Amino acid sequence: LAQEGDFNNIINSSFNARTLYDSLKVKCHPDRFVSDNTKFETATLIFQEITKNKNNLNRLEELKQEAITHLNIDL
After folding, report:
1. Using CA atoms, how far apart are residues 54 and 57, in angstroms rounded to an integer?
2. What is the pLDDT of residues 12-63, one digit of tens each?
3. CB neighbours of 68 closer than 8 A, spacing ≥ 6?
4. How far apart are CA 27 and CA 43, in angstroms?
5. What is the rounded end-to-end Cα distance, in angstroms, of the chain?
6. How confident is the model at residue 1 (pLDDT cuts 50, 70, 90)?
7. What's the per-residue H, E or C state across the chain?
8. What is the pLDDT of residue 4?
């Protein structure tokens, strides 16, 4: 069953991850939060995770929620 979930993520990622990745990399780029050190550090960590997981839709969705919560952005 776990393999089926991974297979679904692979298929969904191949079609949908790029759009979400492009949106997240713009909205979560650390340069957008230079004036707030806390948000800058958080954005840096989230941005690093985004770039590591650019082909993993499930992880990008998790990072999207983190960005909404911690960086107060709308996507």
Report:
1. 8
2. 888 889 999 999 999 999 999 999 999 999 999 999 999 999 999 999 999 9
3. 74, 75
4. 9
5. 31
6. very low
7. CHHHHHHHHHHHHHHHHHHHHHHHHHHCCHHHHCCCHHHHHHHHHHHHHHHHCCCCHHHHHHHHHHHHHHHCCCC
8. 60
